Hints:
alpha+beta; ABC_transporter-like_CS; CATH 2.40.50.100; five-stranded antiparallel beta sheet; Rossmann fold; 2 domains
Amino acid sequence: MNQLRIIQLEKKFEDRKKDENPVFSLKPVHLTIKEGEFFSLLGPSGCGKTTLLKLLAGLEQADQGEIWIGETEITNVPPESRNFAMVFQQPLLFPHMNIEDNIAFGLKMKKVKRAERIERAREMLGHVGLKGYGQRFPDELSGGQQQRAALARALVSDPRVLLMDEPFSALDPSLREEMRILLSRIHQEFGTTVVFVTHDREEAFHLSDRIGVMSDGNLLQVAGAKELYEKPASIQVASFLGLKNILKGSAGKFGMENRSQQVELADSRKSSMTHLIIHPEKLQLSTDLEKQSTAEEIIFEGIVKQLRFNHGFYLCTVQTENTLLECSISSRQAETVSIGQKVKLSAQLKGLHFVSR
């Protein structure tokens, strides 16, 4: 198996003008990416995801750690000898070459005969939806078409790993969606191992088998999209994923106490948990102020502050005694709720998620 193994890889960037702490430090990353997996590195700008990608490509040298592909260590192997391909934010096509020759350029560097490389380039043009565009030049193509050509150029050499650094960030929303669908199909067809860098949560969730969330040079959590959303490992991960209902309390042996609520924990092993995360779809809104809580649920009282339409449903923001809570409600229910109205929110205890920090 040609797994991509990253073993305690780290990188520090020093400020040459000052003899102080590093300007940025990629903390030790330990990670295994399966052969044929679509793996995304997700995080805000400056979190270290592109630095990690450049280390994998050989464009940066690690200070510590190792990189292995299968049984071969490639930590100090030059970029051109790794048989990795990279797609950047910009297509970086050669303006003086037509698209066919652009795509075949890597094969030319590998001394592949012209007839074969042109045949393979034309075949790859068909895979990315650019059949018949081979004789055009880059400036005759749209931004989306240029990025398709860049993807074809990367794949034509049959790389062991395809590295992608926010390749769709410069495209408008409709083109980005189009490219996501294309990339997903291409990945299924070729089965190439992909390491994809993005700051877009929706993009990562749409494309990935697994996702690694990064922040401040740290790899915080690695999981599939469903597990990542339902069970974020920390409030930092939850916040980046857009979850708003994060309640801080004081941990105790029997429960996590908030000034107005106490939640009994399922077992004593959770006694160190200090934050409660409630997903908006787990909260049920009721205008019945007489509603009483049961032993299996928690109830909050509050006032509706905002109703916001969002992809077929509404997000309702409720001001409770201690915090703002956000819940998802249907369009029909939104018609019965108004700003300033007193409501109750309830959630089943089994649907709550606790984290320690």
